[in-house]
Design brief:
single chain; 2-enoyl-CoA Hydratase, Chain A, domain 1; lipid metabolism; ClpP/crotonase-like_dom_sf; Enoyl-CoA_hydra/iso; lyase
Length: 244
């Protein structure tokens, strides 16, 4: 589901592969967080490329796992798992490059919004369909990808944005054909890996230190409303209506 390797240049590659749509279960989010933490702690690692196999980058949480739960344990688990994975991307001591193809939805936005650099295929789309699932969250991260009013419109309508649109905003560095995505991400990674690793790690820490966003606190605030919607029964009602 989550695999990681490191090449001779110090470029680490973390790959999500959970068919059919790379929606991760609770264990998957925690495994992703763990993999990123282990790589960041390895002094041989200079940069991380986060990518996925399959039709899309990430479709968020495994809704079926939530629906199969008889209590709120899965909801608590997945919310903690997502928070851990998003934080692991942001707090990784080295730069994280997200290579995005196809759909990037829900939790995928949390990963990409916290990445340092984004490279996308020309078929990539980004969105938060949370309101259609009776949930909220990751607006914190979408706000790092698109302007404020575009983010609000996307949240309220569940609309998606294209890689070309995000490139125009400056949040996506490069847009390439899907067949060239991995090579494009590794080309950027190679440039970073060629720099002094101590300086790059210091740069990552310094940039996080001057970031106006407290992404942990902001996302945790959003999660509180998801809990409210589930406790009140509204979330179940919305998901049932959406599934008809």
């Amino acid at each position: 589901m989550i695999t990681s390797t490191v090449d001779e240049l110090g470029v680490a590659e973390v790959v999500m592969d959970n068919p059919p749509v790379n929606a991760l279960p609770v264990a998957g989010w925690f495994r992703l967080a763990s993999a990123l933490g282990e790589l960041g702690a390895d002094p041989a690692v200079r940069v991380v490329v986060l990518r996925a196999e399959g039709r899309g980058f990430n479709a968020g949480v495994d809704i079926k796992e939530l629906q199969a739960a008889t209590d709120f344990s899965a909801l608590i688990g997945v919310n903690r798992g997502c928070a851990a994975a998003f934080a692991a991307v942001y707090e990784c001591p080295v730069p994280v490059i997200a290579a995005v193809q196809g759909f990037c939805l829900g939790g995928g936005i949390g990963l990409v919004g916290n990445a340092d650099i984004i490279v996308a295929s020309d078929d990539a789309t980004f969105g938060l369909p949370e309101v259609d699932r009776g949930a909220l969250g990751a607006a914190t991260h979408l706000s790092r990808l698109v302007p404020q009013h575009r983010m609000r419109a996307m949240m309220y309508t569940s609309a998606t944005a294209t890689a070309a649109e995000l490139h125009a905003y400056g949040s996506v560095l490069r847009v390439v054909p899907r067949a060239e995505l991995r090579d494009a991400a590794f080309a950027v990674a190679g440039e970073i890996a060629a720099k002094d690793p101590t300086v790059i790690r210091a740069a990552k820490e310094s940039l996080n230190g001057i970031d106006p966003w407290d992404v942990r606190r902001s996302y945790r605030f959003e999660q509180g409303f998801t809990f409210e919607l589930n406790l009140s029964g509204v979330a179940d009602k919305v998901r049932e209506e959406f599934g008809k």
